[in-house]
Every structure is written in C-alpha cells, then in structure tokens.
Amino acid sequence: MSDDEDIVFTRPTKIIHYGSLQTNLLDMQTSSSDDKEQKTKELGQIHTSNEYFDLENEISKDKAALLEEFEKRKKARQINVSTDDVEVKKNLRQLNEPICLFGEGPAERRNRLRELLASLGENAIGQKIAEEEERKQLQKEQESTWYHEGPDSLRIARIWIAHYSLPRAKQRLQTAKELLSVPSATKASRMVELQKKLQSLAPLCSQVGDTRPVSHCCFNGDSTLLLTSSWSGVCKLWTIPDCELVQNFRGHACQVGGVAFRNNVPRDAMNEVAMASGAADGTVKLWAFGNEESIADITGHVPHRVSRLAFHPSGRFLGTACYDASWRLWDLEQKQEVLHQEGHAKAVHCLAFQDDGSVCVTGGLDAFGRVWDLRTGRCIMFLEGHLKSIFGVDFSPNGFQIATASEDNTCKIWDLRRRQPIYTIPCHTNLLSDVKYQKNSGDFLVTASYDNTAKIWSNRTWQPLKTLSGHDSKVMSVDISPNSQYIVTTS
C-alpha cells in the first residue's frame, strides 16, 4: 500500500460557512444609516468634523495686525513731541493718563505720549482742552444767576421803588454828614453810656408763648406790640412791656416759620393788612388787627416751605424766602407776584431789606448770601465766606453794612462799599439762628444761638457787651424794638 493510501480523512461534525467578502460588502451597503453608525462605533471608527481651519485667512489677519502696528510706529515717529519732560507730563495729564509709570524715564515717557497720540490722533490734546473749556462754560452758565422774565407790573414796581428809595438815600447820607460834625468826645461819651446800659440789662418779663417752640418774633413800628409765631401753627399778638396776650391768629395747619409787621398801620384799621406769616406748607397769610382769620392768602410757594418774610420799608411790597431756592416779591396793592428771583443753589432761608428800600439781601442753605438791587434786578454783591448755612441776615441803618448769622457758629460783617467781609465774630458754641441790628443808629447788634443764649456786640469794636441767658433750650429768634428799649428772644 502506498503512503497516500495510509491517510484517513475524518468528516467534521459541524460545517461552518464563512461567507464571501463580496456578500459582506453588499450587506453593509444595503444596511440602514442607524445600523451603519452602530457598526462604525463597534468597529471603533472616529467621526470626521465639518469644521475647517482657514490657515490663509489667519495668516492674513496676523499680517494685517503686523502691518497696522508698523504703520502706527511709523506714524508715531512722525509726531513731534516736546523734549521738555514737564510739558510731556502736562500733556499726559490732559489726556487723563498717568504722568509717570514705575521705572519710567523721560525717554520712555515721550515714547508713551507718542503712542497715545498715534492711537488717539495728533489733535487729541486740543480736543481734550476744548471739551474741558466747554464743560467749564456749561458749569458757569448753570451757576450763573438766573433771571425770570417778570410781568409788565415789575417794571412799574422797579420805577416806583427807585422814586421811593432815592430821596431816603439822600436823607440818610445827609444824616451821616451831620454826624461827622459831632465831636469825637461826644460820640465816645454816648457809646460809654450805651454800653453801660446794655451791660446792666436784666430780664423784664418771661412768658410761655405756646405749647410748641416759638419760632420767630417781630416788633411793630411804635414798639408797643410783639408778634410771635409757633410750630403749633398759631400766631399771637402781645402787648409791650406787659407781655399780655391780645389776639390769636389761627389759620395755618403746620409750623409757622416767620412773621412780619407792616409799618405805619393803625390798630383801628380792621381791614388793612398789618401782619404776615409764612408756614412750612408754603402758605403765606395776611392778617389785620381785630380779625382772628386771615384776610388774604398767598399760595404761590406751595408745596415749598416759607421760612422768613419781610415787608418792604414802604409797606407796599412783601418779600418771602422760599425753600425752592428762590425768593419772591409780592405787590400788595396789585395783589400779584412781581418778582420771582433765583440765584441760590439751595433753599433760601432768610432775607432783609435796606432801610432805603433799594436793596435786599438773602441768605441760603448753600452758605452764600446775595445782595440784590430792587431797582435794576441785578445781584450786586456775592457774600462768600461762611462754611455752612446762613440762617439770619440784617442791614445796618447806615445802609452799607450787612450782618449774617451762620451754622458755622460765626457772624460776619460785610461792607457793600468794599464788597468784602470786614470782620468775623466767633459768637457762640452752636449755630446762629438769627441776628439783628439796632434800628436807629446801629451801634450794637444781637445774635441768637442754639447754645441757649443771645449775645450783644458792639458795632465798631465787635466786642461782647452782654450775654443774655435764661432759656432752657435753643434760642430761635431775636428782635430789637425800634426805640431800642427792649430786646426779645424766643425759644
């Protein structure tokens, strides 16, 4: 037997069919997209992205940035910059840039200025200067005095005030010339006698004025009556020197801040305006003798507080200080507002008229005072010097001195002729609420303060003559009678 015949073939028990490659490819092509994705995941294949990185565009952007940087450096080299380091720092400051960086020398500073001018423009400094000038001009316009356009009656009122004040000013100057002829010894003896009288002052009467603080007081022209206002809303009329209550004036619904007497009104004039009062709700009421209710109301200030008011020496006009940063002048004969004057940055708290009737002074919470010429409407003097709010102003009878009482505990004396303060009196240990000159000659003035006292000061030497103490709380107002016999304080 051959070797081939010795090989024995065994038949497998199970036949395995592997299939062909062509069949597998056909099955894969005809399968669904979902099966295809599943198979690719099983086979570990990686998906290709549709996002492409454009290398040419990126290179072109880099080239553009590089060219721009070269162009900027070329432009910077062409810009002329001062070699003075002080001038370079000044230019940097005008561009709102730091004038010096850490470790920076003059050369580096000049290069930095060149680069800034290259990026901002060569005229950047000029533009900054122009913008700053425009801003200052706008601020100046905002801070400048604003004049309202008044009615036709304002011109008539100004002419009337001019005709009224000029003869009185002439008479005042004539009186001043006559005083110059008085010997100095006579003047000195009069002052010594007056000072002795003031230093010997003692309380004459103490009266409970109201259940709430008594905010203001005012004498009438003949020194026989006193008008007071209170935070209870009630105004009261008292006799002098007995301090007896004569009449109550009811009508205000809130705190009354100021009252004023009209000159030369007889007590038997039942329907004539004799007094005025202003309240915190902005209402101003006019009162007559014998009537507990007001005969007229002025509501032009509502809802702003009316803190102080004063009658013009002629009695025809009424001035009111309002917390809307303005003061107003009312014609009582025409029964209308003839002047609405702004000028203060904050509320106007007080005002006073010169005895001639030609000038008015106002003081505000902005710590400034202003002097207004009623004949022309112009602000003729700006009282700048106090550190805090002004709560009291008054004119001296000589016509050219003004006293202002401030929250900074001082009283300043101003001279209209010099247009500046001539003395500062460190009066009290707390804010000053009011100040008043002697009515006839102005030889002394009185200040009231929240330190519970009032003080009398000599007009020429500004020395303290007398401290009026006795109140248990803040002194809110003070007034001197026209005959110089009485001084009243309210608290």
From TrEMBL:
* SUPFAM superfamilies tied to this protein: PRP4-like, WD40 repeat-like
Write down the Pfam families for this protein, in alphabetical order. Answer: PRP4 (PF08799), WD40 (PF00400)
Q: Which residues cross the membrane?
A: none
What does the entry give for GO biological process?
mRNA splicing, via spliceosome
Matching entries from InterPro entries are given as: PRP4-like (IPR014906), PRP4-like_sf (IPR036285), WD40/YVTN_repeat-like_dom_sf (IPR015943), WD40_PAC1 (IPR020472), WD40_repeat_CS (IPR019775), WD40_repeat_dom_sf (IPR036322), WD40_rpt (IPR001680)
Record domain Pre-mRNA processing factor 4 (PRP4)-like: where? 83-135
Keyword line = Repeat, Ribonucleoprotein, WD repeat
> A Gene Ontology CC term for this entry?
U4/U6 x U5 tri-snRNP complex
Kindly indicate where the leader peptide sits in this chain. Answer: none
Q: Which domain of life is it from?
A: Eukaryota
Entries under CDD domains matching the protein: WD40
The record's GO molecular-function terms, alphabetically, read: U4 snRNA binding; U6 snRNA binding
Spans of repeat WD: 249-297, 306-340, 341-382, 383-424, 425-467, 468-491
Name recorded for this polypeptide: Putative u4/u6 small nuclear ribonucleoprotein prp4
